[in-house]
Amino acid sequence: MTTARWLELIGTIFGIAGAVLIAANIEVSGYGWIGFAISSVTMGWFAYMIKAWGLLALQLCFCATNALGLWRWLIQPALTVASGS
């Protein structure tokens, strides 16, 4: 299997896993943002390799929203706990 196909497969699997975690609305749902981030990076790389510029632009936007989700759901709460606030 080519590198591009591996990236597409990895991006798809992690995107689905992230969506399921977020949609489940359970205690660990915030970890879905990690799946989304992995998916966006790998799908962005895939889009670049196949020269799908619209898909690449979409994945870049998803990377930004994933960064916000990671910050709000995982990083900021961990910093709050660590600071004792």
UniProtKB/TrEMBL annotation:
The keyword Lipid metabolism does not apply. Keywords: Membrane, Plasmid, Transmembrane, Transmembrane helix. Its main location: membrane. It is found in: Membrane. It is a multi-pass membrane protein. InterPro entries: NMN_transpt_PnuC. It comes from the Bacteria. Pfam families: NMN_transporter. The chain crosses the membrane at residues 7-24, 30-48, 55-75. This is Nicotinamide riboside transporter PnuC. The lineage of its organism: Bacteria, Pseudomonadati, Pseudomonadota, Gammaproteobacteria, Pseudomonadales.
